[in-house]
Amino acid sequence: MSINASGWRPEAPISGGKAAPTTTGNKALMLEEALIFEIGDTTTTGVDLVEPIAATSRLGDLARTAPIGLPGLSEPETVRHYTRLSRQNYGIDLGFFPLGSCTMKHNPRLNEKMARLPGFADIHPLAPVQSVQGALEVIQQLAHWLVTLTGMDSVAMSPKAGAHGELCGVLAIRAALEARGEGHRKIILVPESAHGTNPATAAFAGYSVEDIPATADGRVDTEKLIARLGPDVAGVMITNPNTCGLFERDMRVISDAVHAAGGLVYCDGANFNAIVGRVRPGDLGIDAMHINLHKTFSTPHGGGGPGSGPVVFSKALSPFAPLPFVEKTDDGFHLVEEETAGEHHAGAFGRMVAFHGQMGMFTRALTYILSHGADGLRQVSEDAVLNANYILRSLDETLEAPFGGAGPCMHEALFSDNGLADGFSTIDVAKGLIDEGFHPMTMYFPLVVHGAMLIEPTETESKAALDQFIVALRSVAERAKAGDVSLKSAPHFAPRSRLDETLAARKPILVWKDPGLAQAAE
Amino acid sequence: MRYLPLTQIDRDAMLGVIGVATIDDLFVDVPEAARLEGPIPGLPMHASEMAVERHMTALSRKNLTAGEVPFFLGCGAYKHHVPASVDHLIQRGEFLTAYTPYQPEIAQGTLQMLFEFQTQVARLLGTDVANASMYDGSTACWEAIGMARRITKRGKALLSSGLHPHYVSVAKTMAKFTGDALETSAPTLGADTDIDALIAAIDTDTSCVVVQYPDILGRIADLKPLADACHANKALLIAVVTEPVALGAIKAPGEMDADIVVGEGQSLGVGLQFGGPYVGLFGCKEKYVRQMPGRLCGETLDADGRRGFVLTLSTREQHIRREKATSNICTNSGLCALAFSIHMTLLGEAGLRQLAAINHAGAVAAAERLSQVPGVELVTTHFFNEFTLKLSKEARPIVRTLADRGILAGVSLGRLYPGEDSLANGLVVAVTETTTAEDVEILAAALQEVLA
Questions:
Q1: Tally of domains within chain B
Q2: Contact call for residues A480 and A429 (beta carbons, < 8 A)
Q3: Full domain range(s) for residue B437
Q4: Interface with chain B: mutation pick from A129, A499, A502, A513, highest number of B CBs within 10 Å
Q5: B193 and B323 housed in the same domain
Q6: Quick one: pLDDT band at residue A13, thresholds 50, 70, 90?
Q7: Which residues form the Glycine cleavage system P-protein N-terminal domain (chain B) (predicted)?
Q8: Do both B44 and B130 map to the same domain?
Q9: pLDDT the model gives residue A3
Q10: To the nearest 10°, the Cα dihedral for B255, B258, B259, B265?
Q11: Which of A3, B114, B353, B438 is most exposed by smallest CB count within 10 Å?
Q12: In chain A, where the domains are located
C-alpha cells in the first residue's frame, strides 16, 4: 500500500534543516504573521462610513475621550491577516481529525448556506411572534425530530452548549426532587470515566459528587453503583456510549434501580453519534440527556464554539423544563415565555439564557437531519461504529487496547501508552502524528486508562483516509516503542514546535502590551 | 447519502478485517430490547440538497426580515452592518472546522486570533484582561455574579432595575440553586437610573452590584460613584454592556473603576440570528484573573524560542479541576469571537468612534422627531443609540399593529415586563447606522396615525 494517494514516498528523512534560514522566517506557503497591534494603526479603518448627521450630543459628560488603543487595518490587509492565521490551523476540511469524544465530522456547506438565508440570519429575537413564524416553525420541527430520535417526551432547546445542557438537565432534576419534597437528596453519582464537565456541573447545581469506579472491562461498576443508591442520592450522570467507547450494557438495569431508589438519571449525550437511528435513549430509562448539535448533527465547532446543547426530557422531568419553548396551536406558533407559561407550565425551573437559544445552529441541524433522513441517520451510526472498529482491529497489535479483548467498541477506539519505550508517552505519539499530517487523537482522557489515546474517526471518513492514518499511527507508535528521540522534539514541521505551557501559566501574558510602554512602566 | 464516503465494497472489506459477519455484530452490547429495527418511524428518508434547500427557504420566507423593513428593535440585540469580508473569512474551513485549540502547534491561527480578541475586548471594556469569550451576555453576567461570590465570599448581589430582564431571569434561575440572594426590581419609566438607590442599598453583606450601561431603557449614567460605594464596602462593581458599539462614544466601565465588565458582543460581526449564537464578553481587573471563568489564551515561546500562543491557566477549568472548577463551561463562542475581532480590526479605533458617532447622532435626531408626534413623550435624557418613548396608549398592541404593516417599531416594555402596568406604555427604540431618515419618517407617521 502506498502511503499517499500520489504514490510518492520519501526515501530520505524530510528536513527543513538543510536549507539556509529565510530572512523573513517565512517558509514558502507558510507565512509568519504579526499581531494586529504590531501592524495596525488606530487611525486606519477598513470600513467606509458616512459623516454623522449634525445633532446635539445626549451623552452628558460621559464622552469617551482617552485613547482606546484599537488598531485598524484596511480591507485587503485584514483579509490577508486572517487568511494567514487560518493557514496555521488544522481543520476537518484539511484532513483527518480523530479527536475522541468530540465527533469531528464533516460540516456540510448546505447547512451554512441555509443558516445565512436572510429570513433566518436577519431577524430579531424580540420581533413580534407573528413576524417570525418561520423561525418558530424551524425550532418546533427540530424539537420534534430530536424527541423522535431519542424516544423522549420533550426537549428544552435553549442551552448554548453541551455543558450548558448538562446544567439544564441537572437543574431540572433538582427542581423535580424539590417539588417532591426530596430536596435533601444531595449526592450525584458520576462514573470516574466521566467528562470533567459532569462533576463541574453537578457541583455548580449544588450537589456533592461521588465517583463510581469502572470495572476491568471499562464499564460502570453496576453493583457498586446500585449499592450506593439511597435516600441521599439525587441521581446519576452517566455517559452512554461511555468515554471508553463502550455501550453501557446495564443502562436499563441502572435506570430502573435509580428510579426504584427515588433518584433520576442524567445521560451525557456527547456520544449520541454512535447510536443515532439505532437506539432511542428513552428506551433505556433515562430522564434527561443533552444533545450536542455541534457533534452528532454536524454544526461546525468553529475553533471552540458556538455549540448548541438541547436537552431531551422524560415525562417525569418535562414539567420542570426551562423557558422558553415553542408551542403550536391552531392559529400558528407561539413562544411560551415567563408571561405565557402560566398554569400549563408552572413548574418550569427558570431560564437558561436571554432569548431562545442557538437559532443559527438549529437551522443547520434541521438541514442536516432532513438531508440524511431516517435511513441516512441510521447509516451514520453504523459507519461511525464500523470505522472505529476498523481502527481498533487494525492497530490493536501495535498499541495496547485495554478493552479491545472484550468485544467491539462503539464510535471510538481506545488505546493506552503501555508498551512505549521508557520516557515516551502519548504526547510524543500525538506530536509525531502532527508531523505525519494528522490531527492527534484525544490524549490522556478518559483518566481510567494510562496514557489514554481516544480515537473517534466518525462516519465521514473514507476507507482510504483511515488506511493512511493507520499506516501513519503504526509507524509513529513503532518509533515510540523503539525510543526514537526525534519524537520527543516533534512536531518538526508544524508552524510552531512544542510550546511552553508552564511558562505561559507561570507568568500569564493574556493581552498585548506595547513593548515601549511596558518598558517605560518598569 | 452525500456525506458518507464508504461504499458497500469498503464496508464488506472492513467487516472482514474486523472479523465479524454483519454490522449488527458490532452492536451486540446494546440489549435487544433497546435495538430499533429499521429506520426511525416518522422521519422521512434522505433528501437531495435541492429538496432540503426548497424546504428551508420556504420556512425562511415566513419571517419578516429586518433588512427589508423600517426596523427599530434593540434591547440586547442590535442590527448593524457587517462588512462582507467578515462572513467570508469566518467561513474559511481552517477556522470553521477547527476544534478548541488543544494541540497548539497546529492551532496558532485560532490562538493568535483569541489573543488579539482578548486584547481588543479588554481595551474596549477598559479592563486589564479579558477571556476568550462566553456563550452570550446573559450567561457572562451570571458567571460574573458567581465570580464575585468567590472573591468576596459573600452571597448577596444587588441587581439594578435597569438590567435586561432576561439577564435577571437567568441570574434568578441560577441563584435558586446556588443559594445567592438577589435583590432586584422592575425599572421606573423615567430619565433617572437607580444608581443612587443602589448606593444606598450596599452593605457589608453585598458581594456585588450589577448595573447595565447603557441600561435596558437606553439610559447612561456615571458609574464612578457606584464603584466607589462598592469598594468602600469591599463589594465589587459588575457592569454589563449589551451594546459594545456604545463604547466607541461613551466612557468604558473599566475607566470608571468597575471590577468586572461583561457584555454581549453580537453587535460586531455576528448579526441578529434570532438570538443566537452570540458571543459573551468578559473582562476584569488583573488581580481577579484566577477567579475568572472560561478559556484564556496566553503568550509563550516554543522550543525554538519563537513567540506562540496556548490556552493557559487551565487549572481553573473543569477538565482539570472537575467539581472544583470556576465554571463548567467547555465550548464557548470561538467563531463569533472571530467575527467580532475581524469586524473590530476592520473598524479600528477611528472607525469604531465614527460608527458610534453615526449611531448617536441618528438616535438623537430620531428621538427628537418621534417626540414631536402627538401622544409620544421622550423619557430618556442621556442615551447612546437607544431611547425610551412613553406613548399615550399601550405600546404592545401598537408594535403588533405596526408589524402587520411592515414596520418593526421597537420593543414594547409590555413584552419585557408583562404585568407591570406602569411600564405598559413604554416603547424602546434603537437607531443604528442601518436606520435611514426615511425609516424614521415612516415610523413617525405610523405612530401619529395609531395614536390619534
A1: 3
A2: yes
A3: 70-81+349-451
A4: A499
A5: yes
A6: low
A7: 1-445
A8: no
A9: 61
A10: -80
A11: B438
A12: 111-367, 376-505
The distance of A46 to chain B (nearest Cα, Å) reads: 5
Is the pLDDT at A522 greater than 90? The verdict is no
Domain co-membership, B31 together with B99: no
B51 and B187 inside one domain: no
For the stretch B80-100, pLDDT in tens is 999 999 999 999 999 999 999
Task: Check CB contact of A496 with chain B, cutoff 8 Å.
Answer: yes
Is A284 in contact with A150 (CB distance < 8 Å)?
A: no
**Each residue's pLDDT tens digit, B309-362:** 999 988 777 777 777 777 777 778 999 999 999 999 999 999 999 999 999 999
pLDDT per residue as tens digits for the range A52-83 = 999 999 999 999 999 999 999 999 999 999 99
B110 and B194 co-located in one domain: yes
Residue A378: CA atoms inside 13 Å, Cβ hemisphere, count?
19
Q: A267: Cβ–Cβ under 8 A, 6 or more apart, which residues?
A: A237, A238, A239, A240, A281, A284, A286, A288, A289
Residue A186 C-alpha cell reads as 444531595
CATH topology of domain A111-367: Aspartate Aminotransferase; domain 2 (3.40.640)
Are B75 and B38 part of one and the same domain? no
Beta bridge pairs of residue B408: B71
User: Taking a contact as any Cβ pair under 8 Å apart, which residues of chain A between 103 and 142 contact chain B?
Assistant: 104-108, 110, 112-114, 116-128, 130-135, 137-138
Q: Which residues of B touch A331 (CB under 8 A)?
A: none
All cell numbers assigned to B330:
467547555
Angle at B308 between CA B303 and CA B311, to 5 degrees: 105
Residue at B3 is within a domain = no
Smallest CA-to-CA distance from A436 within A385, A486, A400 is with: A486
Residue B65 lies in a domain: no
The answer to whether the Cβ–Cβ distance between A45 and B248 falls below 8 Å is no
Q: What percent of chain B has pLDDT over 70?
A: 100
Same domain for B383 and B262, yes or no, is: no
CATH class, domain A376-505, is alpha beta
Strands (E), A213-361: 233-239, 264-268, 288-290, 311-313, 325-329, 332-336
> Contact A114/B251, CB-based, under 8 Å?
no
DSSP state of B38: S
Query: Residue type for A166, please?
Result: E
Q: Which of B437-443's residues contact partners 24+ apart within 8 Å by CB, and which partners?
A: B437/A53, B437/B365, B438/B70, B439/B70, B439/B71, B439/B72, B440/B70, B440/B365, B440/B366, B440/B369, B440/B370, B441/B369, B442/B70, B442/B407, B443/B70, B443/B72, B443/B370, B443/B402, B443/B407, B443/B409
φ, ψ of residue A467 in degrees (nearest 5): -60, -40
Residue B430 reports pLDDT greater than 50:
yes
**Cβ of residue A39 closer than 8 Å to a chain B Cβ:** no
Boundary-marking domain end, from B313, B343, B373: B343
Mean pLDDT of the B208-226 span: 98
Cβ–Cβ of A42/B350 closer than 8 Å?
yes
Helix axes A463-482, B8-18, angle to 10 degrees: 30
Of the candidates B343, B377, B410, which is a domain's last residue? Answer: B343
For residue A238, list its beta bridge partners.
Answer: A267
Q: Count CB pairs under 8 A between chains A and B.
A: 732
In A46-105, the residues whose Cβ lies within 8 Å of chain B are 46-47, 49-50, 52-64, 66-73, 75, 78-79, 81-83, 85-94, 97, 99, 102, 104-105
CATH code, domain carrying B245: 3.40.640.10
Please check whether residues B300 and B444 belong to one and the same domain.
no
For the cut 70, the answer to whether the pLDDT of residue A2 exceeds it is no
Residue A343: pLDDT band by 50, 70, 90 thresholds?
A: confident
- Residues B321, B164 contacting (CB under 8 angstroms): no
Q: Which three cell numbers stand for residue B202?
A: 450596599
